[in-house]
Amino acid sequence: MKHLYIHIPFCQRRCSYCDFNTYANMDDRIEAYVDALCTELVARGQALGPAASSTFIHSQVITPPLTRAALRPTIFLGGGTPTMLSLPQMERVLAAADTLVPAAAAEVTTEANPGTVIDEAYLRGLRSLGINRISFGVQSLHDPTLRVLGRIHTAAEAIATYHQARRAGFERVNLDFIFGLPGQTTAQWAWTLDRLAEIEPEHVSLYSLIVEEGTPLHQQVTRGSITVPDDDESAAMYELAMERLAAAGYTQYEISNWAKHTGAGQPGGNHAWALPTGACHHNVAYWLNADYVAAGAGAHGHIYPQRWHDILGINDYIRTVRAGQLPTAETVALAESDLLGETMMMGLRLNSGVSFAHFADRCGDDLLAVYGDEIRDLTELGLIIQDPIGIRLSERGRMLGNEVFVRFLREPADAHAS
Ligand code: SF4
To answer: Can you give the pTM of this predicted structure?
Structure first.
């Protein structure tokens, strides 16, 4: 297996907007959870057979067309807050992960909450365990907003932690930000983007705030005690981000993701098919609809023709693994129409789009033979661009992504109708 997601469902405190499978005030279960997680990782590895070759050589600069073969093996620790684990706990998890995806050749990422990364020694420890990429949830540089969101750090602490990670030897750092936040103005967002460009992480992820039902933030917005920017204001902030980050030397390679390019063959704004060297290979694997294993409470895995997710609750998860069972909560069988539709929906999120080579590799079919009518219509509407390498969203298509994606979904029986 080439890609592995590991879920660590612990947080110091729940943020007001969060609907992830994560739990606060359960620190006393971390050790037992790590035991169960390591057991699951080894069991999933045994079920899948020997790990992929550790001699995989990755060329840093990926030449178009982008396909699954070009990606590094990846391990991604997400959450929740993986940095709630101690270094010995992290070491055990990574040793178990290594039985599935050899870590030596892999991009190994951990998400991190700046409020939980205690000091530079901890970050150096993570680096020495083979974690070579770190992703900090910063979300805002405005302290009052961070408080409204329930974040456990200030802007200054987040920036200080970023610099500590640099000193600890992390050469690949992502910063996550949210726009469309309560009370946020376009001027505030412009200021944030300028600070971001000065900080200069290799990678930036920007997400529009989604007020999820069932969250404390949703209650506050519904009651009217908090107001958030409307769709037009959020769209303006997104366009501003595209403009400012391009000016700061970032290449947008996915709807919400930007990265620096440091190798030969500078992609620049015009080289539509290139992947910047700072890109996150794990997330690109998702967008290429690649197969990946997942482990941990609530983690979702995908090995075509199946997808599954693990038991959500921490105690149920631990109990099931201790009873000698895999903690799978549900397995869903996928039809060929799912493979085709998801390859298009996910792939078109990438600025490089879906190459003919990638579609043939993932779906075993010819893109124009399967979706010729849709591609013709969408090209005439100016939403898609076709060239000799494949198809991708136009600027206009990027703003109307959902209208494009839906055209590639079909009922199972119609999957090969065209
Ligand atoms: S730190 Fe992240 S995972 Fe944890 S509650 Fe906040 S948003 Fe959710």
So the answer is: 0.94
